[in-house]
Amino acid sequence: MLALNTASFSLxxxxxxxxxxxxxxxxxxxxxxxxPGDSDSDDSxxxxxGRRSNxxxxxxxETVDSKTGKLRLDSWVSSRIDGVSRARVQxxxxxxxxxxxxxxxxxxxxxxxxxxKVDCTIADLKPLRAxxxxxxxxxxxxxxxxxxxxxxxxxxxxxxxxxxxxTLVSGILHHCSLPTVSFPGEGVLSDVEDASDDELNMFxxxxxxxxxxxxxxxxxxxxxxxxxxxxxxTSGLLVVAKNEHSLxxxxxxxxxxxxxxxxxxxxxxxxxxxxxxxxIPIGRDSNNRIRMAAIPGxxxxxxxxxxxSRYKVIEKLAGGGSALVEWRxxxxxxxxxxxxxxxxxxxxxxDEVYGGTKNMARSxxxxxxxxxxxxxxxxxxxxxxxxxxxALTLGFRHPFTxxxxxxxxxxxxxxxxxxxxxxxxxxxxxxxxxxF
Length: 436
What we know:
Elements: H1 21-34, H2 48-51, E1 59-63, E2 71-72, H3 73-80, H4 86-94, E3 98-100, E4 103-104, E5 111-112, E6 117-121, E7 127-130, E8 139-142, E9 146-151, H5 168-175, E10 181-184, H6 196-200, H7 213-221, E11 235-241, H8 244-255, E12 260-268, E13 275-279, E14 282-284, E15 292-294, E16 308-317, E17 322-329, H9 336-344, H10 358-365, H11 374-383, E18 389-397, E19 404-408, H12 413-425, E20 427-429
Parallel strand pairs: 11-18
Antiparallel strand pairs: 1-6, 2-5, 3-4, 3-6, 7-10, 8-9, 9-11, 12-17, 12-18, 13-16, 14-15, 16-17, 16-20, 18-19
Helix pairs in contact: 1-7, 3-4, 10-11
């Protein structure tokens, strides 16, 4: 197993002075108390108010097209009601509000086929509670203005349907000695990569005449000042604002693309070009609402958003069946790296949603490696339980001191072990960054 030095590098000392509990408590609790609803979508601010109708009571009475093959009930209903989340549909099914051919079913995985008659009523939103939890946090840096956390894989950043506890928000509430809070919530995507640009457009002057400044500020603030997010499966660095000034300042830095963000991933296959810039808009996948897709062409309002990623192959692994790839984001769209990697034909290893399946990994790795390694490869692939993506570096201008600060955390043991095993089969250095 590869031994990685997990020391961080920063220009400021850790925990240089205590934070103001009153200030943080006021900021966070006010935001929670006014919060109108959560969303993991990448909609622009002008689109948010219309979504707040929340779909409660919306009915669907429809017969499945005869040309449709077998589909999961939750997936089919989600595809028929534009804008409602899959999590919301699943809640409706489990609540007994959906019937197939006159019989109520509470199984979200129930398979429907052509000719089936489906009756569905969308359930009311159920309040989500974020309660302080004594969750160990890897705090890289903290002062009274900002908090930088090294998020582990499998931790959800904020409460959402199906992920109400064990979140980063709950850990921060406990860390800051803040109370339990409740708010209505709905998730559009099950987990979200760094969606900073989409959320922080609220600070732009380009708003609709009927846009409510205060409500959107609360919408962004509800996740204790979290100005960008990482997928549940993604590990690495994330910054949290501890007051409104810091939130607004960091938001402006994200908007101007001056935040430094570097990610590393292990991919299925190697891109045709070892370096490149992917300038392809991203929008929701029309065939699968739980994922995004790279959509070539001019960005279309409401359908896709401008998205740019730069990548560099650091190392070819296992005879070219895999690669260690560095990513630098110029924008921060929902699932941006995952969608762009899929577009390049190199889905992230372990990313079942975007094509980096176990079968895909085996089909690429085994032909390029000697038979003596096939057993080890099969075991390695079977143990991967998340997309191999890590937020390695985060740099920004401190909202109060104006000093440029920079942090690095190397990948956690699960990522390091996979990398080590692939290197043991075969490795070819392409570029030589100084962090590995």
